[in-house]
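Batch manifest, entry 17 of 40.
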Amino acid sequence: MDQQDQGIMTYFEAEAHSFVLRIWRENREDPDAPAEWRGWIEHVQSEQRHYFRELGEITNIVSAYVGDMANLDNQVFMPIQPKSEEK
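Output type: structure tokens
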């Protein structure tokens, strides 16, 4: 890996977030009621754990750490090598 590649990887690592996710199925007291999925997601760097009852909450939890995905710097996603022109 050359120096430029190392610099790019260092940038990505500095901007990276890691999460651990655990989900489980809980049966309800009423045997005729459907089971409920629950879980937690832990942000590794801060060691903060967030519990949820709906899978849609995962997006909200992650977004709280990484911000609005639409506002990310476009240069992060630019290719390192330009694509060859298609003929």
